[in-house]
Amino acid sequence: MNIRPRTNSALDDRRMVARGFTLVELLVVIAIIGVLIALLLPAVQQAREAARRMSCTNNLKQLGLALHNYHDTFGSFPPSGIDGGKSHGMWIRTAPFFEAGNLYDQYNFSATWRDNLSLCSQSDMATLHCPSSSQTITTLASEAPCPTTHYFGNAGPIGLNATTNENYARDTSRENVSMFGEVGDEGLFKLRSELGLRDSTDGSSNTILLGELSWNEYPFYRAWNRGLHWTSSGLYLATTKNHRYPINIGVKNPSFTMVANNGGYGSQHPGGANFTMADGAVTFLPETIEISTYLALASRGGGEVVSMP
């Protein structure tokens, strides 16, 4: 005689039924996930921007070191250009010092900068690009698809020296203000110049060497090897720029009208842009910096007493 164990069928049935989420519980979970995503995304974006800004800082550090090595070799910083015809810029002259020596060896300095566009288009020139900017090629159709540069040599300040109460010096003999803008004369780069650290009488730690101009809507991105354009219409500076306007003026006011020589330093980094000083240090200058202080940092020998912001 087989005796079957007694079971509680009702209890067993309850155990076999899997309990699921109610609609209210599901909505609560979705809401919590949404809040977490909303909190995390800005933090992730800030972390990514911090990494991009650090990469930009490293680029400017490398380029500052390259210019110092050039200075050690030739006794001065490279000129913004030698002549208005061939017009090879400062970055192709400095290329061997920032790991672009192979390109430099193939570059034809007997030809013009334009004749070398095909060669210069073969490299992405990452060292010359801020990763926060999406515009990495020239905005001039006849030069595309050649890479541009986001880092420009300091041609000098345009405006009033608050210490002497006189305007900063300019090269008025080559200016066409309405077409290209003023030509600064108190920076560390100019036409046919052999300026060096010895000329930075304000102190190398108080003089801008390079500035970042990397905002996406800037209209004058040109081929990275181009130095200048000099005709009867005046002098156009391609890889050096004046310091005239407040930092990020073009970012904050896209309708602001500017001409090429006056650049409009700024970046996609929130609140300012990166700059390399003549001593090689890289600093982030805020867009709120006093214009008199900013211009003073752009002059190599204006006699101003300034402190870094």
From TrEMBL:
This is DUF1559 domain-containing protein. It comes from Bremerella alba. Keywords: Membrane, Transmembrane, Transmembrane helix. The chain crosses the membrane at residues 21-44. InterPro entries: DUF1559, N_methyl_site, Pilin-like, Pre_pil_HX9DG_C. Residues 45-290 form the DUF1559 domain. The keyword Lipoprotein does not apply. Pfam families: N_methyl, SBP_bac_10.
